[in-house]
Amino acid sequence: MPREYPRHQRIAAELMRSLSDILRFEIKDPGIAGVSLTNVDLSRDLSVAQVYFSLLQPDGDPQPALDGLGRAAGFLRSKLGQAMKIRHVPELRFRHDDSIAHADRIRRLIDAANRPNSEG
């Protein structure tokens, strides 16, 4: 028996799919080129969507991407309004998701700790 998800979770998943497609195929801003969406957290009243993104270069500066996404927010909302069947497209707030960079740092620390000591 399939589990029923709350409406805001279904809409958040659809927002993420649609935003990913729009970013991949319709945005030409070079500052957004290395962006990958990781999650969309939609408020219960559907008015605000926190959109989390990561960078293809985990140690890269997220500010240019954040600026580019901020500039594109109006265009993105407009495209979402055309793509989705909801009355009001939520306000988009972009946040850098640094979990991938954090995991990479932890992996490097573990690798360094497991390396045999070359001093004998």
Description:
The longest helix has 21 residues, at 63-83. By secondary structure, this protein is α+β, with helices and mostly antiparallel strands. The N and C termini lie far apart (61 Å). The protein has helices spanning 7-25, 63-83, 99-114; strands spanning 35-42, 48-55, 91-96. A 3-stranded mixed sheet has the order 1-2-3, with helices on one face.
What is the number of helical segments per DSSP (H or I, 4+ residues)?
Answer: 3
- Give the tally of β-strands: 3
Task: Provide the succession of SSEs.
Answer: HEEHEH
**Beta-sheet strand percentage?**
15-25%
Secondary structure layout plus pairing:
Elements: H1 7-25, E1 35-42, E2 48-55, H2 63-83, E3 91-96, H3 99-114
Parallel strand pairs: 2-3
Antiparallel strand pairs: 1-2
Helix pairs in contact: 1-2
What key phrases describe this protein's structure?
single chain; GMP Synthetase, Chain A, domain 3; alpha+beta; globular; 3 helices; 18% strand; three-stranded mixed sheet; 120 residues
Write a compact overview of the structure shown.
Helix content is 47%, strand content 18%. It has 120 residues and is an alpha+beta fold. It has a single domain, classed as GMP Synthetase, Chain A, domain 3 (2-Layer Sandwich), CATH 3.30.300.20.
